[in-house]
Each structure stands twice: as structure tokens, then as C-alpha cells.
Design brief:
Strand content: 5-15%
Strand order of the largest sheet: 1-2-3-4-5-6
Radius of gyration: 35 Å
Number of helices: 14
Number of strands: 6
Structural class: alpha+beta
Distance between the termini: 82 Å
Amino acid sequence: MRIIKKLDWFIVKQFMGLLVGAFVICQFVLMMQFLWKYIDALIGKGIPMDVLAQFFWYMGLMLVPQALPLSILLASLITFGNLGESVELTAIKSAGISLMQAFRPLIVVALIIMGVSFYFQNVIGPNANLSFSQLLLSMKQKSPELEIPEGVFYDGIPGSNVYVQKKDLQRAMLYGLMIYRMTDSFEDAAIILADSGKIQATADKKHLLLSLYSGEWFENMQRSGLGDQATIPYRRETFTEKKILIEYNSDFDLAETAGIANDARSKGLNKIVHDMDSVNCQFDSIGRSFLTDEIRMVKMIHIVDTCLSKKEQKKKLLAWANAKKVKQKSPDSLFVKLTEQKKLLVTQEALSEARRGEMEAEYKGLVTDEGDHFIVMHELEIFSKFTMSFACMIFFFIGAPLGAVIRKGGLGVPVLISVIVFIIYIILDTSGYRMARGHFWAVWFGKLLPTAVLMPFAIFVTYRANKDLTVFNKDIFIRFWAKNKKVLKILKYDKAKHNRRGDS
């Protein structure tokens, strides 16, 4: 018993040292990969160091749940690869200690890391995601000049190209301004030159206020149709101070703040469940109102009360149907008796009614689709919190047995295997997420797909390693291929013989 405890501490120490190093490497790689998404928003914008520090801090917190499974896979592979390569694993088995007993302390560690991963995704991750999104939005709203780089034309403002020679971020000033404002074509462009200026977002965050100092404004007058009548085809204005209001809804829309608050990634599990219940209740009431409108259109509002139970509604509908068992005239027979003018009038009214119904159906479809998308995104986030945490255990039972079988330490073969397994997991997880988000697959199927694929492989590898068997027996594949070659030769011979008989 004392030997096993010492062995457990020895394996845990070996594993934890490698786990910390693997986590740092994986975190760095994932952050660099994530950084490419926002590289254009950071490079050349003169963002202060404290803002950049917050940016990377929140990014790192968001990526911790993804780095943990990969680091466990890599650390377990290297740990048992080193033990196997140094013949220590053989000595452990010679002492009567099975491979599963050697796994036991690391299974406890993997369970603890799995809990840490879930805590990050449920508590720290949502807050980090919310702070990260608010940081990006505040960078745009408080300092719009950060979006405009120095020395190149910036086309992010609709209808304008802005060139800034130099920026002073402390005073929020822009120097050496050149602005091309286009309406219909480049021939109709207005050119504005200014020594300095500054750009600010308005209070409603829907416009940009451009304050320019000491400049000139050149504008082509032919665009308004005055070129043939006016003696001067263009106008030139010199100003000492000028203010221009530019519409800019794309990046400063107030809907972005609502989108941040409603993002499922910015919510914990309790908040997600609460919001899903609220949305389900809200859209159930909307659905009942839609049903009431449809019933009113067919003149059944006095029969069906939406507050009644389904059984009571069904009884009233049956009673109404029995009461209506009266022979009625066909609408076609009534339409034939009308005059041509009335037929045209009835047809136009029916067409307008059909179009109105189509528009109402499209609107109702948009409303319900929005609710369905909201529910799906929140369900995906619920599954993600559990599947990403459980991936820590799956990756351990892939990495540790493979390390014990391969018996190769270092960063060569383990890194290659870890990258291949992690890429397969990411491909399956991303594909399932997108298919579920697009309503092609069920949410549970899309999110459980990588687990369903990798878990049998983890069980297979663990079983083979515990029985001291190779994971992939080369001789089995050779024999299988040889048998298939014989079968193919027999099939080819029979086909050629049949063709010769057909020719004869």
C-alpha cells in the first residue's frame, strides 16, 4: 500500500510538471490562432498598453476550457511515453501493479481538472466573454479614431475614404486629413482637405461628428444637374472650422449592446436556463395570439377560447362541426352568377387578401425563427459546457494508453498524435455546431458527435493497453489485405470468364 502511494505521488509529480508546460504552450497557440480574427483591429491603431493587456487577459480566460483538454492529452502522452521509454513502466507492471492502477491518481487529477473546466465555462468564461465584447465595443464608441490607421486610406466609413497622416491619441486629434466623399461615382466626389480634426460618436451612437480645422472643400456641382446652367461647374470652400455629420450605424448600432447581453456565451448555466424559460413563455404567448388571429379569420373565435385546455377546445370544435352539417352552396357556383365587373372586384379583393395573408405569414415566420434561433444557441451553449469539460477525461484515456503503448517521450511523436486527435475533435465539434445552428441537426446530436466518435476510440485504446496489446497490429492488416487481394483476383477471373462466354 505504501509502495502504491509513493508510486501515485511519483506519477502525479511527473504529470503535473508536464501539464503546466503543455498548458502554457496550448494556451499560447490558441491565443495566437484567435488573435488573427482581430489582427486588423489592433495593428497600427495606436491602442494603449493597458487596453491591450485587458484584451489579452480576457482572451486568455475565454480560451482556458479549450486549452485544458489538449494539455491533458499532450501531458498524459509524454508522461507515460517517458515511463515506457525509460523502462519504468515495465518495472511497475513487474511489481504486480496494473496499468489501470497506475492511471488511478491521474484519473482523480483529470476529474479535478474537468471540474475546473466546467467552473471556467460557467462562471469565469461568461464574465470574460462579456467584458471582452464590451471592451471591443467601447474601443469603437469612445475612440473612433482608433479604427482609422495612419498613412493609408480607410474605407470603413460608408460613402467616404479617409486618409490620416498622423494621430495624437492622447488629445484624440487627427492631422493631415484628406477625405473623399462619394455619392454616385468618383466623378461626383467631394474632396476635403484639413490640417487637423477629430472624430466623435454622437450620443445616440448612430452618427459620427467630424470636426475639421483649417481646410478646403472641393465639390463637383454637375452631380446635382446644375452643370449646364451654372457658370462654375464646381465649388471651392475655404474654412477655419467645419463640422460634418456622417451616418454610421454599422459599428455604433445600439443593437450591438443588446447582442452582447443576449449572447449565450456571456451567460452562466442558471442564466441560460432562466432566459430560455422566459423566451419559451414569451413565444408561447405569441403563438397563442397567432392561433387566435387565425381562428378569428375563419369566424371561430366564439368557439375556441385559448385559455381552455386542449380537451375542452377539441370538444367545442366537434360541437361546432356537428352544428355546421348543413348543405352549403359551392363558392364557384356563386362566383359564376356574378357580373364581369363584380368578378373582377372579387378577384382583386381575394388577391389582396391572399397577399396580406402571405405578408403576415412571413412576419410570423420571422418572429418564430428568431425565437427558435435564440433557443438553439442557448441549448448549444449548455451542451458545450458539459462536452468541453468531459473532453478532459476522454483525452486522458486517449493520451495515457497511447503513451503506454507507443513508449516514446519528448515532444516528437506525442505532439504529432495530440495535434491529430485535437484536430479531429475540433472538426467534429465545429461541424456539429454549425449543422445544429443551421437547424439541420438536432442540438444534442451536433454537440455529442465528437464525444460519440472519440469515446469508443478511448475505450478501445485503454483496453488494448491494459491487456499489453498493440493498438494497431500490423500483421492483422497485412493478412486482411492479402485475403482481399485473393478475393479480388477471383472476382476478376470470374468476370473475364463471363465476358469470354458472352463474346462466344
